[in-house]
Design a protein that fits this description.
Length: 348
């Protein structure tokens, strides 16, 4: 798991700080000790005021003491600088992993909740009756993003379905309602889904087999988030993972992590979503790399699948098409900003 290499690095740096501090303390003691030795040899006890020219022994002792002071200060400054650098490295490593709390704490589940309001829609979309139907199979490809930019949610659904399907929300039909149960919360939804005004097709997230579990989960998340227009503005995959699973959710800052930390998380069984950076005008190298590996030119979230035999990162595009080519670890660390992930089990 990604946290273990980070914690190991923190322990190693902490030990190094202690060892370097001890070494520099020994150097300082040697400098001061040498000065005191010179003073004793000159038969002068301690550090005396400036001696007259007629007192060569005292002058020699004073010179030794005066020399020791700046040397000791140099050692002290060096020790402080080393500690500052190591402390900054430790703080940076600890900052790589951030617990991502939800925007709202889930309350206790209600056995008979009131019906949730229909979340607001984007333009050109209306609600139409659609019964709940379950997918024939569940995996990383069972959810596809629709006409809004909620890749943070759909990629989270894809990675949970692929890596920890037992954590997916329970969705059931109950009379004139569809119940979506996530940890600590139940949504009682009308049996309607957003459809396109023009052709009547499902407007937002969907499944390739036409089942409706995915759009009902998205509808519940829209209730939670304040409507589909809010989802369309994007969001944090860590929050979506937490909402879906109730499991502790985190983010890893990719550019500051190093290949091995990234590889450890990618190879783990934890549901994970990788977020690419946008490739702005003038970023010719980034745009060329995005084209080479079939990445979206805008910031986008992808479900993490794992590493191949050549230690390249395998990603799933929640669009359901234009999946990225395998991305070498060093390239991945340049093109992606973060990985959001959640614990799949109590062992982490």
């Amino acid at each position: 798991m990604a946290e273990r290499p980070v914690r190991a690095a923190v322990r190693a740096l902490t030990l190094l700080r202690a060892e370097v501090g001890a070494e520099l303390e020994a150097v300082r003691a040697a400098v001061v000790g040498r000065a005191e030795g010179v003073a004793r040899a000159a038969n002068v006890a301690g550090v005396r005021p400036a001696a007259a020219p007629a007192q060569p022994a005292g002058a020699l002792a004073q010179s030794a003491a005066e020399l020791a002071r700046p040397l000791a200060a140099i050692v002290d400054d060096a020790a402080g600088a080393v500690r500052h650098v190591l402390d900054a490295e430790v703080a940076g490593l600890l900052a790589l992993l951030h617990h991502a709390p939800p925007t709202a704490t889930p309350g206790a589940p209600s056995p008979t909740p009131g019906r949730s309001p229909e979340p607001p829609l984007t333009g050109g979309v209306r609600y139409a009756a659609h019964p709940l139907t379950l997918p024939a199979a569940v995996g990383s490809g069972f959810a596809r993003q629709g006409a809004i930019s909620d890749c943070h949610l759909v990629a989270a659904l894809c990675t949970v379905a692929g890596r920890a399907p037992w954590l997916l929300p329970a969705v059931t039909a109950a009379g004139d309602a569809v119940l979506v149960d996530v940890p600590g919360r139940r949504y009682r939804l009308r049996p309607t889904l957003p459809v396109d005004d023009a052709d009547g097709g499902i407007a937002y997230a969907r499944s390739p087999d036409g089942s409706t579990l995915v759009p009902y989960v998205e509808k519940a998340f829209a209730v939670y988030g304040g409507g589909y227009p809010t989802l369309a503005r994007g969001g944090l995959p860590a929050e979506a993972l937490y909402w879906l699973t109730g499991r502790p959710s985190y983010l890893l800052r990719v550019p500051r992590s190093g290949d091995e930390v990234v590889a450890a998380l990618v190879e783990s069984a934890q549901p994970a979503v990788a977020c690419s950076r946008p490739f702005d005008e003038g970023d010719d190298a980034g745009a060329a790399a995005a084209l080479r590996y079939r990445l979206a030119p805008v910031a986008h979230a992808y479900a993490v699948l794992g590493l191949d035999a050549d230690r390249r990162v395998l990603l799933h595009n929640p669009w359901g098409l234009r999946h990225p080519r395998p991305v070498p670890l060093d390239v991945f660390c340049r093109l992606f900003t973060r990985i959001d992930w959640c614990e799949a089990d109590d062992d982490g």
